[in-house]
Amino acid sequence: MSLLNEQPGVVTLHFNLPAEFQVPLTGENETVVSVKVVNAKSPVTVKDWRHPAFFGNTWKFHFPHNYDGVGVKYQVHIQLFHNQQPLLVELDYFVVVNQAPYSQTVNLSPLGMLYVEVKLPETSPTEEAITISLHEATAPEVELVRIKHDERTATSFYLKYDPDSVIPGKRYALTGVENRYHQQVQVSPGAVELSPVSRNFSARLFQSVALWLEKPLRLFTDSDEKIR
To answer: Model-level pTM greater than 0.85?
Structure first.
């Protein structure tokens, strides 16, 4: 990959949130975006950006494309924090850029509303074309929600679930079945954390482990009542 000597191109991402998502206006807000090149031998950080505010349900984000004459795969991670609590599902988004300027729409998933994309077979019935199941990644029989969609709305939509019913840090998955012939269809995203661990919990856990490591190890014979 050769670096450009002149002004680099720009990649523009259009971040979208569902219209019904209410952006918090009070409290402590923060937007965090990380962009990395992931088709190199090791990931290369392109931009690590933080801003102490939100930007509404639709906004633009820019980062430089510093490579010429080659396709680059970028990994984009975005999180919104309100009072140290994450508001988005823990997801990575991938953007492939062959030439800049380049733009792409990224539909974000707030907690309780997972943005789903389905690749339908060429022939599908027009009514209740597919069934989508959201379940535990290692236990498909443990479902959070199951819905049916017709041909017009099945390609992309927000799948609603109860965020209080999921375990923070646990991974969940989607399964799609075409209803006429009962064949599986491709559904994205793949395995995903629907309720990421909050910053406060992570900080408390790290602090507890650090304090535990600082304490000297004690043997049974160090106790007040030694074993005879």
So the answer is: no
